[in-house]
Design brief:
The structure holds two protein chains of two kinds. Chain A is an alpha+beta fold. In chain A, about 35% of the residues lie in helices and about 20% in strands. In chain A, the strands form two sheets. A five-stranded antiparallel beta sheet of chain A has the order 4-5-3-6-7. Chain A has a two-stranded antiparallel sheet with strand order 1-2. In chain A, helix 1 runs antiparallel to helix 3. The longest helix of chain A has 27 residues. The C terminus of chain A is likely disordered. Chain B has one domain. Chain B is built from seven helices and nine strands, in the order αααβββββββαβαβαα. In chain B, the strands form three sheets. In chain B, strands 1-6-7-8-9 form a five-stranded mixed beta sheet, with helices on both faces. In chain B, strands 2-5 form a two-stranded antiparallel ribbon. In chain B, helix 4 runs parallel beside helix 5. The radius of gyration of chain B is 27 Å and the shape is globular. The N terminus and C terminus of chain B are likely disordered. Classes of the chains: A alpha+beta, B alpha/beta. Chains A and B meet through strand 1, helix 2 and strand 4 of A and helix 3, helix 5, strand 9 and helix 6 of B. Strand 4 of chain A pairs antiparallel with strand 9 of chain B, so a sheet runs across the interface.
């Protein structure tokens, strides 16, 4: 279930991913982790935030959020749901956060994870992955918390590569 | 009176009378036993679950590890003395469960206190933990694991007791948070926040923000998964029951074997 720890939140990533390379038991778990890791190593936000009034947030959406590992951070009035950003396509983004000398390995490991295959990174790459995901998780938490505390009604959404914006209704499923 | 009947009286009635009394007592005993079971399940089991979740979150590898990695230190179960303060109590009913939300309870149980106090005179409160970071930032952390699927109507005695405890405690913690600019209050729920708890926090947070994290540290806490499974089962049943009811029996159960075509 959700990685909603202390000041950290990232959709589709298990909590142990912040300390080590996690056990990813299913192809879907590997794909989710691979996408989150690719976004993090590229220095891009791999999440979207939608904010609901608690009273208006559909119960099924909140249950789905728990089931799909989407963190929920909010206040008594509002809840911010952190969903994965849409995957841009088949090509990996530029992995600017990967240490020198590990680019090739990173591309190979992420390529395997993104198609649901098992991969085992080296210790150095595993550390870089955990650190990049940790940084991303802190940013995602801070943004979600700020969004939940912001004033205004309705649903707002943070685009994956742009500033927060208000939308008239709940965004469609991004997965 | 015949000689035969005279031979069994009067002590002969003791055995049948005892049997009748024993049979009559069975429903009484069963009822009392069931009442005790209901009482235990509504108070002791949630309490045990809450303590187990608290231990899980406060285990060295969980919250304390995260706080340390952020440069802070965590003190479990500290005593705090927030300013003595009372607020008007607000009780809620949730007759349709989580999906139906919470509505104000127009007639709470007579024993429910009309006001919640942050602490008794001269007393103190014990939150689950306080994290302190360099620079003085402090975060009070309260760990909760109530079932989000509880249903209860107007005037329920145990829900009034539960909400009074939660509301008075939240009053204390929010009062503590309001006493310093670098203080925050954070609730960590093992799953979804129950609607009555959200309603109480909403009522109390008018002057101060409070963070509510759902599913916090739940990935490694199996009972939280059970909560989710129960909720999904309930929701899916409700969502599909109408459709199933409209189906003809053969559509619902499948065509008889001898009518199937290869």
């Amino acid at each position: 279930m959700c990685m909603t720890g202390f000041d950290q939140a990232l959709p589709g990533v298990p909590e142990e991913a912040l300390r080590t390379f996690p056990v990813l038991a299913t192809p879907e778990a590997r794909r989710r982790y691979g996408r989150a890791a690719a976004f993090a190593l590229a220095g891009l936000p791999g999440w979207e935030i939608e904010v609901w009034s608690r009273r208006e947030c559909p119960p099924l959406l909140r249950m789905r959020a728990l089931q799909e590992d989407w963190p929920m951070i909010g206040t008594g009035r509002r809840v911010a749901i952190v969903r994965p950003a849409p995957w841009p396509g088949d090509e990996l983004p530029s992995l600017v956060e990967v240490p020198a000398g590990f680019q090739e390995e990173a591309v190979r490991v992420l390529g395997a994870l993104l198609v649901g295959e098992v991969a085992q990174p080296s210790v150095e790459l595993a550390v870089a992955l955990a650190e990049a995901l940790g940084r991303a998780a802190r940013v995602a938490f801070t943004e979600a918390r700020a969004a939940a505390r912001s004033e205004g009604g309705g649903v707002s959404q943070r685009a994956a590569h742009g500033p927060p914006r208000a939308v008239a209704e709940a965004p469609s499923n991004s997965r | 009176m015949s000689p035969r009947s005279a031979t069994i009286a009067p002590w002969g009635w003791i055995v049948p009378a005892t049997l009748i009394l024993a049979v009559a007592a069975v429903p009484v005993v069963l009822t009392a036993s069931r009442s005790k079971t209901i009482s235990i399940s509504k108070t002791e089991r949630p309490r045990a679950r809450g303590i187990a979740y608290e231990r899980h979150v406060l285990a060295p590898a969980q919250l304390p590890h995260t706080i340390r990695s952020e440069g802070g230190r965590l003190k479990a179960h500290p005593r705090i003395r927030p300013r003595a303060r009372t607020v008007a109590a607000a009780y809620f009913q949730s007759p349709k469960g989580h999906g139906g939300g919470a509505q104000p309870d127009g007639a709470p149980h007579p024993a429910a206190p009309a006001r919640w106090q942050s602490r008794p005179p001269g007393g103190y409160r014990v939150p689950d933990a306080i994290a302190t970071f360099p620079g003085g930032r402090q975060i009070l952390i309260e760990i909760k694991c109530p079932s989000p699927w509880l249903t209860f109507g107007e005037g329920s005695p145990w829900s009034a007791k539960m909400q009074a405890a939660f509301g008075a405690q939240a009053t204390a913690f929010l009062t503590w948070g309001a006493a310093g600019k670098n203080r925050e209050v954070r609730y960590l729920f093992c799953g979804l926040i129950p609607p009555w708890a959200a309603a109480i926090i909403e009522k109390l947070e008018d002057h101060l923000g409070v963070d509510v994290l759902e599913g916090a540290y739940a990935g490694t806490y199996p009972p939280a998964h059970a909560f989710l499974s129960a909720g999904m089962f309930e929701a899916l049943t409700a969502a599909t029951l109408g459709t199933l009811a409209e189906l003809a029996p053969e559509e619902l159960l499948g065509a008889p074997y001898d009518q199937l075509e290869d």
